[in-house]
Write a structure and sequence with these properties.
The protein has twelve helices and no strands. It is mainly alpha-helical and 274 residues long. The longest helix has 36 residues.
Length: 274
């Protein structure tokens, strides 16, 4: 395991400052969601009593059960698809040599620099022609394609750092390409894969524009999209909007807390290898 360098006191102070700038607005939203429903805001303070019923009310009124279900379906499918595609393509670009390799790789990386908004209209036209709009596939397939650009770049960096002798030894033992990948390389790729899973899940969960364009059926709306419609309908219910916002953000927060140590380690190792 690669040891992380010691952090200077000045760097720690900067990190604490930025952490406070990030946490305090989140804390304000959480405290607002626990205020009485008819609270007249003149600032956000600690409520006299924690009103958890605000979450039940927002969950029922805004139909968040269906929205959270849609977000889970989309995010899990995108994570699985992206990890599979990125692992296979990263393995090919990182360990094999073939004609046009660099051209194909940089063509794939163009997905990182082309603004998604620039292709959303032709993408909608193509998916509508294929009768895929108003279905989960209209969100899942484009997100897999978008995230696979970064995923391929990320996994290629890992596979390029693997000692060549390890791959050659597996080949001498009679292992084919897929067996080498599955049995030899993937067990050591867990930090890189976990980091990719967390990042893709967060990006997919928070995606707003693509579901907004592709999904018009209410039962297919994702959680961020449902939150936007809820805020549009209940503009004066700030406490309810805060409770809904906390519910939308909670799965991502729980995932990051559960995996933050391995996530940070995977980011650190990936940065060193690149």
């Amino acid at each position: 395991m690669t040891a992380m360098p010691k952090t200077a006191p000045f760097s720690v102070a900067i990190l604490i400052l930025f952490a406070a700038m990030t946490v305090l607005p989140i804390l304000g939203v959480v405290l607002l969601s626990l205020q009485p429903q008819d609270t007249q805001l003149s600032g956000v303070g600690w409520p006299d009593r924690l009103h958890f019923e605000n979450y039940a009310r927002a969950f029922e009124v805004a139909h968040f059960a269906a929205y959270l279900k849609s977000s889970l379906i989309v995010s899990i499918a995108v994570v699985v698809g992206t990890v599979v595609v990125s692992t296979l393509s990263g393995y090919a670009f990182g360990t094999m040599r073939f004609a046009g390799q660099n051209v194909l790789f940089y063509l794939l990386l163009s997905g990182l620099v082309i603004p998604f908004e620039a292709v959303i209209v032709p993408l909608y036209i193509e998916l509508r022609a294929g009768h895929l709009t108003n279905s989960y596939w209209s969100v899942i397939l484009p997100l897999i394609a978008i995230n696979s650009s970064f995923g391929t770049f990320w996994m290629r960096a890992y596979f390029r750092a693997v000692p060549r002798q390890l791959i050659e030894a597996a080949a001498m033992d009679g292992a084919g390409s897929l067996r080498t990948l599955w049995k030899v390389l993937l067990p050591g790729a867990r930090p890189a894969l976990l980091t990719l899973v967390v990042l893709v899940f967060i990006w997919s969960w928070n995606e707003f524009l693509l579901p907004l364009v592709m999904l018009s059926r209410e039962d297919l709306r994702t959680a961020p999209l449902g939150l936007a419609f809820f805020a549009g309908r209940f503009t004066t219910d700030l406490v309810g909007m805060a409770a809904a916002a906390v519910m939308v953000a909670l799965p991502v927060v729980v995932l990051f807390i559960a995996t933050h140590r391995r996530f940070v380690h995977g980011m650190w190792v990936g940065a060193l290898k690149q």
